[in-house]
Amino acid sequence: MVERNSTFSAPLRRYDHNGYSDCRGFRRFLIIALCLLALPAWAQRSSVDARKVFIELSTDKAELYVQEQLLLTVQLYFSNELVSGELSEPVSNNAVIESLGPQQEYARVRGDQRYRMIERRYAVYPQIPGQLSLAPLEFEGSFRGASGRLKILRSSEQLFDLPVKDIPPQFSGSVWLPATGLTLEESGLPNDNRVTSGANLTRQLTLRAKGLPDATLAPFPAQTTPGLRSYPEPAKRATDISAEGLTSILQQASALVPVQAGELRLPEVRVPWWDTASDSEKVAIIPERVLVVAPGSDFNAQAQVQAQAPAVAAVDRKLNEYGDDTDPELDVNDQINTGSGAFWPWLALFMAVGWSITAGSVWRAKRSRYRANKATKSNTGADGSELYKELLAAAGNNNPDTPRLLLRWMNLQYPAKRFQSWRQVAEFCHLPPLTDALTTLERHRYGTEQPLEDNASNISAQLQQAIRELARRPASQAANNGLSPLYPPAIDASQR
């Protein structure tokens, strides 16, 4: 500590030419002494007023990669009773800034002064390499002083620029994922990998990334496996917010239907990412999986083709037996000339029997169709009114059989169309609300992960409104430019 002493000398009495005393020098001495004593108090008061409010900024790292998470902490200190105030938000032209929950209030002591402190935390994601610059944070508020009067105080603080590094050239992934942790999980398939042909399976992949927003996570690439039909659903995204930053979650489910017995191989899933803690590349892997598919009781088209393959091969071998050296027509003529005369009668008898069997089959098929149409009309009425009421009731209850009832009712209304699936009906009618509602019902029927109870009333009302609109349409107003179904009726998933 440095002490300064000042000494002043002044005469207490002075005689003028008239002989009277003059005290003006003593008065000057008192004024100067009082001013010198008051200067330290004024200086201390000014410094205290300047520290009644101030802002402190801090980050969790001094440099980072592009799109890497930076935790920014903003702390506002004030010593008086805050009446009102406004603290600006951090802003940057080349970064995405996310707030990490509501602000927190604490009590802190700095030096000999007790402060109230408001803390806010943000996650900052720079989008381009170079320098990360944030605009100054400003505070303006009103405080009530000791005299009871309101006082306006202002404070501002700016974060120093941070260097932002580009994507390292040794990164092998197609999507840049800088995170502090990343996990990849698989669920839904049996542990023993044994399934039955025609069974409905659900495979769900879950990706969790710590330190990234969910928008940066790309959906899983589509994978095809011979003998396995896959129906992927839209990916679901979510973000968990905490004081330590963002944790994003990506979930994607796929309905799998094995249609071929034997071993089916699901290829491995690889997600490369960059570990910012160790500054190195890592890969999250779900290993290859082999499903052992047992034959099911249902007949499928692929099994039919496999069963007919030996017969087709035998026919090909017979045709190849002629070769280039033998003329098939000569062989036939030789057989006719050398054979007995009973060849032609037997051939005529064989053809007559074949035509008789064909004619009988056609007559029986027409008779069965006539009986089926007659029974349908007797049960549902000539105009399908009973079936229409049943369809409306099923739609109101979100019954999974609503697509099947809609298909029957539309075939009664438009017999010439011969709809094979509800998707053909939706394409013919051009009603997007009907398509959306039936798609949601179909996902619920095949065991999707999204619950239907959240918006059950909206779906039922949407279905009923679309069906009533169809009932009010005359046949001449319906569109007649529908395309043929992509899949034959035998393998159309909507018919199962």
UniProtKB/TrEMBL annotation:
The keyword Lyase does not apply. Residues 473-496 are annotated as: Disordered. Residues 386-472 form the DUF7939 domain. Keywords: Membrane, Transmembrane, Transmembrane helix. InterPro entries: BatD, DUF7939. It comes from the Bacteria. The keyword Membrane applies. Pfam families: DUF7939. The chain crosses the membrane at residues 343-363. This is DUF7939 domain-containing protein. It comes from Marinobacter psychrophilus.
